[in-house]
Amino acid sequence: MNPKPDETTGLFDEQFRRDPHAYWSNLRAQSPVAWSERLDAWLVMSHSAALTALHDKRLTMDVYSAFRPSPIPVRSSFEMEPEENAQFRRAVAPHLRTIARDTRQVEAVALALARQIDDSRQWDLAADFAEPLAHRLVRHWLGLTPDSHLQLLHLLDKADQVEDPSYRAAAGEIATELLLTEIVTARNSGSQTLLARLARAWPEWGGKDADLAAFVSPMTFSLVKGIGTRLLVHSVAALCLQPALQRVVQDGGFNLAERVAEEASRWEPVQQAIPRRASNHMELEGRHVARGERLLIVLSAVCRDPAQHPEPHRFDPFRTEPSLAFGHGSHGCLGGGLATAATAVALVVLLRTVRGPLRPAQLPSDVPQVGLGLAYTSLWLQARTSA
Ligand code: HEM
């Protein structure tokens, strides 16, 4: 088979890192599906091609066995057979909806943290507010003690980071054991935490505790460290560009803040790509995808496709068109509602507690991490002025 020419010249170079969205706009205009030698994958950049791909049963999720949402040695929902996955989704969804509706805890924790912010100096929204908020909420939702939570974080970190593979594996095994113990304790506790509810509901659909551990583990790992925290940070980054909107959200409350969080998820997707693999030869937007080849649905590009999102670079919380920031179809995100609701509550509390308007203390070019789109792993805000 002849090697395909690489169509992603300039990917990750300096110009890309300064403005990845301009890069994707140009590439999408040439071809909505393009081959990247560097990423060894077809990159899908238009909304319509992404939607087609997310519903095409020939595109499998086996890439997730090598790239799980958390480093424990247990299959995630992405690796379940379709019928089992559908049962898993039916079991989890109502409980996530229930805790998403109960915003009192988010409000209380956010208020306690916001009051502690020392805004007489520059402060980092991620480290001083968003990360501790996410950790405390997850601890509450799962009903973990501070000690077992810390131990879990430590083990997952080792299972992910340590160089020695046998050490990594051992840390993953111990983390799994700890989670399984927490599940049994929660099931017998009679409490109403998310974990206790799920642990009691689990046997009803024939789910194994290991599958519940695989669902819970990312909540203490990637969903907190990375994407969950970042949704709030990206929402504030967007509001920093429109100080007038901060006042509107402050006055408008939860419903408007939820729209801001939803628009932030589109404007700068925190999960930048969705991976798939072709189980058979297929065509996508006129491109021939061979069996075994990988696809990356580049959400950072898809969510700014002008064919779906008019004026895609404009942050507009009043948009009505749906985005694919939380995926779609049989594996679409189960926690999107919870993430946007928690972000919205935190935004309102923050804007009502810290004297605004919030202004960035860093240049857009100082955005700390890029990947396939911008990723604000920190957001330094200016000290309060006395005015
Ligand atoms: C900003 C926060 C979040 C973002 C951007 C996000 C994004 C996504 C995306 C794009 C997918 C689809 C992946 C694919 O099709 O390959 C997904 C799936 C999933 N998400 Fe989220 N997610 C977020 C928060 C959460 C939270 C808080 C939870 C749980 C509490 C959660 C649980 C899940 C699960 C279980 C799946 C897989 C469902 C299945 O296999 O059927 N997510 N998420």
UniProtKB/TrEMBL annotation:
GO molecular function: heme binding; iron ion binding; monooxygenase activity; oxidoreductase activity, acting on paired donors, with incorporation or reduction of molecular oxygen
Entry-linked SUPFAM superfamilies: Cytochrome P450
PANTHER family: CYTOCHROME P450 YJIB-RELATED, P450, PUTATIVE (EUROFUNG)-RELATED
Keywords of the record: Heme, Iron, Metal-binding, Monooxygenase, Oxidoreductase
Protein name: Cytochrome P450
Xref: Pfam families: p450
Cofactor: heme
UniProt similarity note: Belongs to the cytochrome P450 family.
Keyword Iron: yes
Stretches that traverse the bilayer: none
